[in-house]
Design a protein that fits this description.
single chain, 19% helix, alpha+beta
Length: 225
């Protein structure tokens, strides 16, 4: 015995499937992907000629710069442009990630310390200062939602126990120093991974629905007497 499907029943079924695809959050909005390690925020490259601000324990100076994340992210490393006396090099750093500078009443969300790896950028003021891109890697568990936060550096030490300064490059960040208040922003980059949501194009949904309609027609021809 062959089974008969009504034309209207097949069409309604296909249209219902198409409609469910068009409005279903699970299909259109909740397809998470993990983007590989990338730049989450960059305040621009080292300038080496405007100015620089102490982040040394010698003067107990702290400098904080804002950064913005476009989506839920995990920070794994950051770098900063640092000036030291000629022949010296940055070694260790203490850091905060916070809602606002800690010295302005911000809440500290994450904190830590570690040892820099350094890449020479050049010199400043006729060779009086060596400038490095100093990178701290291996941050763990630093996960944040989309929004604006601050990276604060302090207690940056050097191999010769001298002062160390954070390069001013006047990028888009808002920056503050505990001794001066608002200042020009500094050179730094934040790296990590971010979770993004893949939303299918409307055309993709229509093509899928059209295929369902065609399949429904084929099923009807196969099973109708």
């Amino acid at each position: 015995m062959k089974t008969r499907f009504g034309r209207s029943a097949v069409t309604v079924l296909a249209l219902l499937i198409l409609l469910s695809l068009a409005v279903s959050p699970s299909f259109a909005d909740n397809v998470p992907n993990l983007v590989p390690l990338n730049v989450l925020y960059s305040n621009g490259s080292i300038n080496g000629g405007i100015s620089a601000y102490s982040v040394s324990p010698l003067g107990q100076y702290n400098v904080a710069n804002s950064f913005t994340l476009a989506g839920t992210s995990t920070i794994t490393s950051f770098d900063a442009g640092l000036w030291v006396a000629s022949g010296d090099a940055p070694t260790t750093v203490s850091w905060y990630i916070e809602t606002a500078p800690s010295f302005n009443g911000g809440s500290v969300l994450f904190s830590g310390s570690g040892t820099f790896s350094n890449s020479s950028w050049g010199t400043a003021y006729g060779g009086a200062f060596d400038i490095y891109t100093s990178t701290l890697s291996g941050l763990s568990g630093v996960s944040l939602g989309a929004g604006t936060y601050y990276l604060e550096l302090y207690n940056v030490s050097t191999s010769q126990t001298q002062n160390v300064f954070w390069d001013e490059n006047d990028g888009p960040s808002q920056a503050y120093m505990n001794a001066l208040g608002k200042i020009g922003s500094e050179a730094f980059t934040i790296y990590g991974t971010t979770s993004v949501t893949a939303t299918p194009e409307p055309g993709t949904i229509v093509m899928f629905g059209t295929g369902i309609l065609g399949l429904a027609g084929a099923v009807r021809r196969r099973f109708c007497v």
